Q: What sequence folds into this?
């Protein structure tokens, strides 16, 4: 068997020191997929000794060493390094004793002196502890948000009674102050509900009420709601839909919420006298919606985080318009689109503008396989 890249036989002292000290499991494969080198961290990670691993293919190890097919539970950890082009993915690694542990891994091509690919390097990191911690964190936050609901509702009830004069006549100043408090409390209540919705949707607890809807109708209902606000900033709000009416099986209210959040952001973050465009593309089995603005754009380093709950781009200049968001809108968008087996993504250039895209299958049971867009 031809193998021009015998790393296993290499006695290079520094090389050995480096790979032995790496805090991640390193597996080196030849072109045919045989393991030709591992480091001690890899042995610890999978429970097999170096001797048991060398010369084997992954599939030959017990239940199969790496269950690469099984995607991780948490898509958030799915990243692409812009520098190296390497994709960091989550997978399940099956240990010698059958235990399945979540890992992050990335692949890099192994090249010989002539720059020919002669194998592959895979590096793995155990993320079981991190995942446990993240889960605990999430539960704590959701309990906290849940427990906030009752006091906010009770305080709102008493405020309404005060405003109705049920505890005595109020003067104008008192009325104004209480109205401000009441409005802020309503905002807080909305944020708590949105956040809990995100968590419940992620956990699959919210059932969608699917019905056949006209995409055009959904969009125009939202656009009508925003016309006045757009006009107040002299922003032209335009819609471009195909001539043929597109019918989709969706939860109307939730998809409206997606558009509301995207259009709200587009208007909020745009400078006055610009344009916000909503475009719909009809692709045989799915529909792609775009919300485009000529606003400030989102800095590249913030792009991987903008769909995280409570994330707001710190480097963006805040104006009166944009200072009081909570960073929950895009998390809501993502969870709703994904609950419809769709996908949401963004293109943004600082100084030029931002386009948010989402795609959803036209028929509900189309599955997440709408990946050809
Ligand atoms: N169209 C856009 N142009 C520029 N930046 C944007 C745009 N949309 C979102 N962002 C950035 O992404 C962050 C997250 O957006 P998101 O809608 O989740 O929260 P928000 O608008 O700050 O608050 P809210 O919870 O009220 O929606 C924003 O704070 C902003 O920094
Ligand atoms: Mg928003």
A:
């Amino acid at each position: 068997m031809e193998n021009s890249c015998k790393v296993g036989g290499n006695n290079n002292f520094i090389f050995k020191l480096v790979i032995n000290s790496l805090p991640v499991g390193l597996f080196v494969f030849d072109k045919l997929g045989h393991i030709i080198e591992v480091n001690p961290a890899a042995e610890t990670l999978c429970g097999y000794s170096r001797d048991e691993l060398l010369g084997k293919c992954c599939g030959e190890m017990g239940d199969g060493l790496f269950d690469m097919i099984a995607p991780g539970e948490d898509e958030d950890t799915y990243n692409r390094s812009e520098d190296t082009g390497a994709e960091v993915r989550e997978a399940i690694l099956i240990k010698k004793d059958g235990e399945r542990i979540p890992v992050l891994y990335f692949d890099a091509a192994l090249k010989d002196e002539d720059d020919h690919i002669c194998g592959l390097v895979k590096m793995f990191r155990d993320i079981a502890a991190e995942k446990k911690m993240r889960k605990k964190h999430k539960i704590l936050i959701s309990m906290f948000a849940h427990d906030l609901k009752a006091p906010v509702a009770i305080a709102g009830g008493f405020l309404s009674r005060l405003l109705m004069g049920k505890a005595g006549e109020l003067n104008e100043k008192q009325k104004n102050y209480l109205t401000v408090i009441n409005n802020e409390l309503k905002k807080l209540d909305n944020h708590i509900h949105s956040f809990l919705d995100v968590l419940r949707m992620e956990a699959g607890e919210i059932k969608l009420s699917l019905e056949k809807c006209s995409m055009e109708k959904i969009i125009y209902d939202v656009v009508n709601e925003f016309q006045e606000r757009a006009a107040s900033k002299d922003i032209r709000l335009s819609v471009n839909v195909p001539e043929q009416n597109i019918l989709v099986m969706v939860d109307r209210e939730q998809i409206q919420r997606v558009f509301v959040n995207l259009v709200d952001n587009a208007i909020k973050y745009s400078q006055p006298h610009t344009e916000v465009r909503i475009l719909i593309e009809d692709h045989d089995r799915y529909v792609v919606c775009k919300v485009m603005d000529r606003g400030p754009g989102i800095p590249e380093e913030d792009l991987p985080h903008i769909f995280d709950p409570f994330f707001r781009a710190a480097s963006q200049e805040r104006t009166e318009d944009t200072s009081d968001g909570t960073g929950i809108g895009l998390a809501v968008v993502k969870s709703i689109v994904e609950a419809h087996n769709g996908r949401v993504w963004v293109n943004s250039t600082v100084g030029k503008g931002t386009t948010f895209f989402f795609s959803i299958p036209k028929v509900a049971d189309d599955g997440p396989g709408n990946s050809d867009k």
